[in-house]
Specification:
single chain, 6 helices, 15 strands
Length: about 240
């Protein structure tokens, strides 16, 4: 299987100080000769700046995936849309009709996601799940080391989402990365223990996870904890 390279394009924190931070998240995935952008942060100007400095070209994107309909994940979308006529945009079926009509008016290719589906060899999106907050989809990469699950905010619950993906694909989970939305959670220990119990090897929480939760992940995962910031690159 080909190597996978993940690059954090946008986050509240910076790994590479030459980039710009902002409240939001975006991750660039290279796998099986495909290039995919997951989420677009909250600001077009900052996203464009970071992409340029990371030498990522919008016209090279094969797909753009939006985790959920919140401004801090869709705010930079217009900066990358329409640069490649063959690029497909994936987002949840629950997105409002007004959003879908806007995309249609720009004559762009888009695909609504409800159930889990493969978007290219070894990369899956979905299923769209609900809970407290908006319905949301994740992106999963199948690697030699196991599944890599990327979430935007995990509003439906990070444990719930990971369990569903493991059940669907029946593979070991190497890494869970992204926003886990645990800043105000009262059951942090249960969530962290639950992820370890189902076999999550490494954890890379960021964006909306919350400092208290990130510290707990670092404590419990030890050497398998990954500190995330804009500009971080992970080869898997």
């Amino acid at each position: 299987m080909d190597r996978s390279l993940l690059t954090i394009v946008y986050d509240n924190r910076l790994y590479d100080k030459s980039l710009k931070s902002g409240w939001g998240f975006s991750c660039f995935i290279e796998h099986s000769n495909k290039k995919i952008l997951f989420d677009t942060g909250n600001d077009s100007e900052k996203l464009t700046f970071n992409l340029k400095n990371l030498e990522i070209k919008s016209e090279d994107l094969d797909a753009i995936v939006l985790s959920h309909n919140h401004w801090d994940h869709t705010g930079g979308l217009q900066a990358v849309l329409g640069k490649n006529k063959d690029c497909k945009l994936y987002f949840g079926k629950s997105y409002p009709a007004s959003f879908q009509e806007k995309i249609k008016s720009q004559r762009l290719n888009f695909i609504l996601v409800e159930d889990m589906r493969s978007i290219t060899e070894g990369i899956f999106v979905g299923p769209e799940m609900g809970g407290f907050g908006p319905r949301e989809i994740s992106l999963t990469v199948q690697t030699d080391k196991g599944l890599v699950i990327i979430t935007g905010c995990a509003h439906p619950g990070i444990l719930k989402m990971v369990r569903a993906i493991k059940k669907e694909l029946n593979k070991d989970i190497y890494l869970v990365l992204g926003g886990f939305h645990l800043e105000f959670s009262l059951g942090l220990n249960t969530i962290v223990k639950g992820l370890k119990k189902i076999g999550v090897k490494r954890a890379a929480p960021c964006h909306c996870t919350g400092e208290r939760a990130i510290s707990l992940f670092e404590e419990k995962f030890g050497k398998d904890f990954i500190k995330v910031g804009g500009g971080l690159k992970l080869e898997i």
